[in-house]
What does this fold into?
Amino acid sequence: MAENKSNENWEPKIVAFCCNWCTYTGADLAGISRIQYPPNVRVIRVPCSGRVNPFYVVKALQEGVDGVLVSGCHPGECHYITGNLSARRKFAMLKNFLTYIGIDPDRTMFSWVSASEGEKFAQVVRGVTERVKALGPANKLVKKV
Amino acid sequence: MENVEKQLREEAKRLLADKKVDVIVGYEEGTLPLQTVPCFITNPDDAGKLVWNSFCSQNLAKYVHDIIHQHRESQVRVKPEDKTRKVVGVVARGCTTRSLVIHLQERQYDRDEVVIIGVPCTGFVAKRKVSTLVDGKEILEAAVNGDKISVRTTSGDKDVPLKDVIADNCLNCHFNNPVISDIMVGNEAPPRDVDREYDSVNKFENLPLEERWSYFTKEMEKCIRCYACRNTCPSCYCKICFVEQSQPAWVGTGDDPTDVQVFQIMRMFHMAGRCVDCGSCVEVCPMGVDLRNFLKKLDKDGFELFAHKAGESIDKPAPLSTFEMGDKEKFIFEPESSS
Ligand code: SF4
Ligand code: SF4
Ligand code: FES
It folds into this structure.
């Protein structure tokens, strides 16, 4: 990431863990509908938001991403019924904990986007990208290689 | 105290003699001042070794888990009809019983594999605090004398008030009396200063972000990754801890500062809803890393978000192993112009 820091035209790298059944499909819909959103997100498809180990988030930050987004089905709509409800508890605590140790809360974001919300997916990505951009390149927890 | 000790020895002796337990896990006199060590008694005649005093710092639930699981492993190749079980008796104060509750909730063993000898607790002495009060001089001898500890150091004797050297976690402990037990010895211990339990966390939360980060990194810089904190923690019982997994290798094992930070973040996060604030990790840490400041935050969130206190009762599942439809979700990002 070193080259990024000196660069005026720095663009953040954001990892988005998207659940296969809702957010990923929503992202697909955004694509099919040709809705524009910033190209800063790298989408990783996961079976369910409940599949996202909190470690993935921490590890992504260590590997140098500037922001992490985890997104799944709205509560009550999870393909596996309750995966997102467990996820919600985990991430409520994770986000608080990371903020407590001094990691900016805007670096770790969570959202619900359903398969029919292509526009909302684009808005979430815009919103997250804007916030991460405002923070600048990640410099905490980042492993220098 | 003496009385508790006497009863404790009698009960332990009786349990062993009646073959109600195979082994008693308790504390015995250590070889260093300010310290007792865990002991494992199988012969009723040895029950007299047991002690119970302000120097009993470690959470013995760890050993209950270890003994039962090692025994089970030794039984894997034994014919079903010849299999044996091991019943462990344990000397348990409040936090130890909460750790046992967590084990039982997580189905690590059955309730009838443990016999809990509950002891009331007035807190243990933090060695580091004593050491600071005697200016880091080497301590040769120490004994509790009423509400003081008489310490003999290489440069003379000193009396330090007991209340000044009680471990931080004990000062605001909610559960100094056992939450479950089969046998109780002694009388109920008086309540501690529980209202101020989260004061330190509240204070830390209000510091600016950068100050929190620099405190975190400063503390983590001290860590030499000896894993003593993990090894003593009753809630860290994974057969293969993530730090030792190699496929994938979750976290580097070198001395890269971010690897240390990531290791600590994840180990502590594994304690969400499972840390009973027994203080064992802090007590065993050779580098004096302030782990408690961070673990206590998880405890506080567990309480504030999910009304949960780790190991409080067998019927209350850990916060991250359950959920409710109406859980708070203020942290979920909603873009402004969401239509
Ligand atoms: S992490 Fe919590 S439960 Fe584990 S030893 Fe430390 S204080 Fe005790
Ligand atoms: S006991 Fe202390 S030095 Fe050892 S790994 Fe834990 S925090 Fe680090
Ligand atoms: S399947 Fe989408 S969150 Fe579980």
